[in-house]
Amino acid sequence: MLPLGFNWTRHIDGPALRVGEHLVASATPANNDSGAPWRICFPYSGPRYHFVASEAGAMAYMEAWAGKWEMAIRDAILVQGPGRAEVLSRYTSRDANPSCNRGVAKACRAS
User: Which domain of life is it from (predicted)?
Assistant: First the structure.
């Protein structure tokens, strides 16, 4: 379940997670091949990317990430200027759910 104030929208070719008008995470297919992995972008943390096998997996990952880092995400949105990304820079995508799809990410890096 998403934290209060977080909502799903569409962005480019996939789901996006927003807090108000702020885009905090989005997912798109990594390429145009059928069965391509999905790339999740966390723009407030660098940006940083994480790969999962499906759109449903991307949404589950973003939801887990939002639940775990809700307060840090809200803090990052409130910070003005160049320091904004620094608030989330230490929260890499692997921190959202350490057991989530590591095999998929390794396979993506190997290919």
Answer: Bacteria
Rounded to whole angstroms, the Cα distance separating 76 from 85 reads 7
Report the C-alpha gap between 85 and 71 in whole angstroms. 14
Domain of 93 in residue numbering reads as 6-110
Q: What is the value of pTM for the model shown? A: 0.71
For residues 80 and 50, give the distance between their C-alpha atoms in angstroms, rounded to a whole number. 26
Residue 22 lies in a domain: yes
Q: What single DSSP character describes residue 94?
A: G
Q: Does residue 38 lie within any of the structural domains?
A: yes
Task: Write the pLDDT tens digit of every residue in 59-80.
Answer: 999 999 999 999 998 888 887 4
